[in-house]
Structure formats: structure tokens, C-alpha cells
Amino acid sequence: MFEITKVNLEQVQLNQGRQILIKPPLDFQGKTLKDLIISLAPMDGLKWIEEGRFRFQSRAFAADEIIEKGQIIEFDKPPWLEPVVPDHTHVLYQDDSLMVVEKQAGVPVTPTGDYYCNSLVRLLRSSQALPDLSPIHRLDLETSGVLIFSKKVDERAFLQRQFQAQQVKKKYSAMVFGHLEPGIKQLHGCYRKGVDSRIFSKWQAVKSGGKECRTRILSVRHWREFSILELMPVTGRTNQLRAQLSEIGHPIVGDKKYYFDENVYLDWIANRRISRIIKQTLLSSHALHAASISIVHPVNRVPMQFDSKIDAVQYYKKTLQPSS
Q: In sequence order, which residues have a C-beta less than 8 Å from that of residue 20 and are 6 or more positions away?
């Protein structure tokens, strides 16, 4: 039995700013820097362009300059107030090689968007004095559950190869809209971003040219107008479970990006007020939880399984908002 310990996370409010490398999406080739930045940061983008914060090969990138294939744009983002994240996490297991934590919803694993210092890896590095700590897999911002970090650089490759070889077994719990047919045992298809969506980061099914996604459905239970699923992803693509379940008409409850109506996510991006969309999403965060993960230890080569101590499904049921 692993001993669970609580770790406090000392988040920041105002950070010191950072340099970001921007690789423009393919659909912005031939458009201007102004077009790109307004789509990414409609509130502050024009001001940042005027301040000369965007550069290409160490020279200022003008607002009306055309974006070409392969360009990497340097952006000196000024200090900003970071979103609030949970003030603690629970460590399920650790030794000289690994730290396994119970990630809460609402904190990103690595720096992204408005989260930089307030990302789980940076908070843990600081609080635990572990400068080489690094996640060996990812969970989305709103996904909770078991997450594994490597403490040593020279052991990381062994752990990552297990993911690449699809040797790592992961199980997720999810609550989705509608009654999924119990006879569906597998989700399989190819996906890529922004096929015909107004959300450029949204993954959608394509007939060819995308990344293969495979997921096993281990169990299906119906509860009210929802389904409770136990899922085992075989591949490990970004947003895989969320995109696949949405594609078959059963988006995860609380999922803004993959909800039936894209206007819900676009409203959230524009206003960041959950009260405006909660009648549609029913939960403030999406109902997806990493319940367990099994890997081989990088030193003693012993198989290890780490299980979440949270009954996520019961939490979703208790916090679910009345449907409109």
C-alpha cells in the first residue's frame, strides 16, 4: 500500500513574463501577422505588435507582414496575472526515480496559454526542490487523475519508450451525454485539427491523413440521461478520448471544446464566465478522470500500477447542474 502525502503548491499571481516561440498553423500561411495575433489574443494583440514584441530572426515582425511556411515567430510576452490553480496536490507514490501525483482539474501539467509559473511541473519543481522533474505523459487542463513524473533525466527515455511502444496501460472514467450502446467495444479512426471547425485546436475525424486513434471501451453504465464509461486508450493522442466520444455523438459532460454546439466554447473563450454556459455543459470542468496507469520501473524493471484514490464519478453526480 502506497502512503499518500499532501504537497502544498505556492502559486504566483504576477509572473515575470516569458519568451514564446509561435509556430503559425498552416491555415495562416499567406495571411498577416495581424490576422494571426488577433485570432490568438484579441484583447492585447495589436498593442503587443505596436510595442515590437514579435520578431523573426531577431528583427521586428510588422503587422502587415505576410506569414510564410516554416516561420517561427519569437514573442516577448510581458508579465501577466496568472489564473488561480489548486493550492495543493497529493503524492500517491515516490522514490528516487518517480513521483506519482493525483492531479486536480484546473491546473495544466506544463506551461500553456495563460499558465506559466502556475503549471504543475513548475510548482512541483519549486516546492520539492527537484529541478529535473518532468512529466512522462500529459493530462489536459481539466482532466484529473494519476500523473507520473520522472526525477532523473537519464531514466526518462526508458519511460517514454513504453508510451511510444503502447506498452503503458491506462484506464479513464468518464461521464458522457446520452446512452451509449453497450455493444460498442472500440473507437477507431484518424484525426487531425481544424478540419471544418471554427475552433482551430479541435481534433476531428478524417478519412485519410490524420493520426490514428484507438480506444477500448471496457464498460458502459447508464445513469439518468448519461453514460458512465471505463475507457482504455491504446494510442495516446492529444484530446483523443474527448474527440472520439464527441465524434460518435456522446461528448463528455462539461467539455466546452467538444460540446454539441461550438458556440459554447467560443463564448467561453471570449468571456471566461462559466455561468454563461453551465446550463449547457452541466459541469464547470469536463468529466474525465485518469483512474489508473501501469508502467515498468526504470531501475528495477518491475511492473507497477498506480490507482487514483478519488471516486470521480460520485463527484460528478454530486456537482452536476440541472439541465436546461
A: 74, 75, 77
Question: 114: alpha, beta or left, given left = phi > 0 and alpha = psi -120 to 50?
Answer: alpha
Q: How far apart are CA 235 and CA 40, in angstroms?
A: 29
176 alpha carbon, distance to own chain's centre: 18
Pairing of strands 144-150, 288-296: parallel
pLDDT < 50 regions, the chain: none
**What is residue 201's three-state secondary structure?**
coil
Of 194, 193, 306, 189, give the one whose Cα is nearest residue 248.
189
Q: What is the pLDDT of residues 163-213, one digit of tens each?
A: 999 999 999 999 999 999 999 999 999 999 977 899 989 999 998 889 999
Torsional class of 311: left (φ above 0), alpha (ψ -120 to 50), beta (otherwise): beta
Alpha carbon distance 112, 118 (integer Å): 10
Output the domain CATH number for residue 159. Answer: 3.30.2350.10
97: left (phi over 0), alpha (psi -120 to 50) or beta: alpha
Q: Establish if 2 belongs to a structural domain.
A: no
Same domain, residue pair 124 and 153: yes
For the chain, the domain total comes to: 3
Question: Which residue, among 169, 242, 185, has the nearest Cα to 217 in the 3D structure?
Answer: 185
DSSP secondary-structure letter at 270? Answer: H
Which domain CATH number covers 62? Answer: 3.10.290.10
Q: Which three cell numbers stand for residue 9?
A: 503548491
Buried b (16+ CB within 10 A) or exposed e, 46-80: eebbeeebbebeeeebebeeebeeebebbbebeee
Q: Is the pTM of this model over 0.85?
A: yes
